[in-house]
Amino acid sequence: MHLLRELEKFLQNSNMPPARFGREVMGDPRFIFDLRNGREPRPRTVRRVRAYLESVQ
């Protein structure tokens, strides 16, 4: 599944604002907004985000 779709689903289910996710997980409050605007994350970033998503489920 595409990372942005996974993140959107997580944000919706958790009621977490996108800026908070970016700040807490990536240290970048614009992370989700940048993905929505076409930013392509590096493989290491994808692994980091997915590891976080797995740890909170």
Textual characterization of the structure:
It is a single chain. By secondary structure, the protein is mainly alpha-helical. The chain is 72% helix and 0% strand. It has helices at 3-14, 18-26, 31-36, 43-56. It is globular, with a radius of gyration of 10 Å.
Average of per-residue pLDDT values: 95
Q: How many angstroms separate the termini?
A: 16 Å
- Helix percentage range: over 70%
Uncertain residue ranges: none
Rough outline: globular
Most strands sheet? none
Instruction: Tell me the count of domains.
Output: 1
Describe the secondary-structure layout.
Blueprint: H1 3-14, H2 18-26, H3 31-36, H4 43-56
Write a concise synopsis of the structure shown.
The chain has helices at 3-14, 18-26, 31-36, 43-56. It has 57 residues and is an all-alpha fold.
What distinguishing features does this structure have?
single chain; 57 residues; mainly alpha; 4 helices
